[in-house]
Design goal:
4 helices; 4-stranded antiparallel beta sheet; alpha+beta; 2 domains; 35% helix; 8 strands; 235 residues; Alpha-Beta Plaits; Translation Initiation Factor IF3
Amino acid sequence: MIRTLITSTALAATLCLPAFAQAQESEPTLSLSESATVQIAPEFATVSSGVVTRADTAQAAVRANADAMSQVFAALRRAGVDSDDMQTAQLSVSPVYADRRQPNQVELTIIGYEARNQVSAKVRDTARVGQVIDAMVSAGANNINGVTFGAEETGDALNSARREAIAALLSKAELFADAAGFELCGIRRMGESSYRPQPVYESRMMAMSDGASTPVAAGELTLTATVSADFCISQ
């Protein structure tokens, strides 16, 4: 008897769930989103650079590359970059083929080997990025992939952007309600979209004089917070 009652109750609850979900979905909803951005000064720069060497054999290419990279690492240390702030980002050896000469040529001729070694160096003084790049190039680096800027602590700035986005979102919802003639009766769902710091570079170029280091403009980092919400509404 008790088991039958429990089973019947569970079945009734199960049957009611779809109806409850449909009722929720049929209720009028206002879906909005807003974004806000804040800018902060970068705290460090990451320089991606390395050495590309070619030789007749793979062993010779690797050996020449290792010798050159040893000089690059030494130059980084002399430039004030800590060993913990250096990381190998790429290491590869691949054959170099001759250009295809004959239309029906099937096999490609190997004419040598190429070794690549790429390092990412974290420069904590953004004013010295150009000097660090020059030191790497002078030591033998012949492949500069780029410079990115970042910050260690972005939580407070990002929270500020979140507050601005939420305030703008609520203001927009009230504007919609006032213009359309309905009432806001609560927030059914609220969420945050993904965000990421984006480096903003200065448009102007710094003048170079004889003997000056490579010009690098750090600019500012832009942090973006996007907030969305579903508001339940009533007439």
